[in-house]
Specification:
This protein has a five-stranded mixed β-barrel. The longest helix has 19 residues, at 6-24. The chain is 17% helix and 37% strand. It has one helix and six strands.
Length: 113
């Protein structure tokens, strides 16, 4: 029986080529200073102040106001000092949240205006 190494080499090369694309697809949170008006962006940081249906998020370099209007009947109940990851969009000098994920992994869906 003859062993043909070419299919194994091709498969190995293909896997080695695709792995960096898979790893690169997992985006890190954007720093507050680096985003512009966009469809959806992810930011992470610490809640530093609570304001009605907004809060201030500090990513370690800058702060931003995050608008987070809860879905009907579902309070957000964030705490000052809590670490969160927010998915949303930047508009008019504030960040409009679509979802908030707590450090525990719990995700809160936010009402979109």
């Amino acid at each position: 029986m003859n062993f043909n190494p070419i299919p194994s080499v091709v498969l190995t090369a293909l896997v080695a080529f695709l792995i960096p694309f898979e790893v690169g697809a997992q985006k890190a949170a954007t720093q507050i200073e680096n985003f512009s008006n966009a469809r959806a962006t992810t930011i992470s940081g610490q809640v530093t102040k609570l304001l009605d249906d907004e809060f201030i998020l500090n990513d370690g370099k800058r702060q931003i106001i995050v608008e987070a209007e809860p879905q009907l009947g579902k309070p957000i109940n964030l705490s000052v000092g809590e670490q969160v990851t927010v998915v949303g969009n930047y508009d008019d000098n504030e960040f409009n949240a679509l979802s908030i994920t707590r450090a525990s992994g719990e995700t809160l869906q936010i009402h979109e205006d």
